[in-house]
């Protein structure tokens, strides 16, 4: 974890309600969290904001969560990644990432806040 007062979490999901809701829940539970709505925006915001953790949907337009995570980790090696998805296409994207040498933890959608907070205790 970096030297921030509260762990910084960048939440990326093209479903704005999900991204905003997760950021609010995290904010109320000791995290400094912000929401973005696609993979490109996640990469750009990460460069500026330097998060400790990226929580991202896998399947998004423009840039998948997997590709966004790979780009972010290339620049911010200490940034941890937690992906979530409810789509079958996830397995193909994750397999391709593994072939390229990247391994990410994935949780299923819908994300249950209690389960997410438990996972974050281990990650940050």
Give a verbal description of the structure.
There is one protein chain. The mean pLDDT is 87. 44% of the residues lie in helices and 20% in strands. The protein has a single domain (8-117), classed as Response regulator (Rossmann fold, 3-Layer(aba) Sandwich). The longest helix is centred in the first third of the chain and has 12 residues, at 16-27. With 124 residues, it is α/β, with parallel strands linked by helices. Helix 2 runs parallel beside helix 3. The relative contact order is 0.18.
Structural class: alpha/beta
Percent helix: 40-55%
Percent strand equals 15-25%
> Kindly state the mean pLDDT as a whole number?
87
Assign the CATH class: Alpha Beta
Q: Sheet with the most strands?
A: 5 strands, parallel
Number of helices: 5
Q: What Rg, in angstroms, do the CA atoms define?
A: 13 Å
Task: Please identify, by name, the CATH architecture.
Answer: 3-Layer(aba) Sandwich
The CATH superfamily appears as: Response regulator
Q: Between the first and last Cα atoms, what is the distance in angstroms?
A: 6 Å
Looking at the structure, the CATH topology is Rossmann fold
Order of helix and strand elements from N to C terminus: EHEHEHEHEH
Low-confidence stretches: none
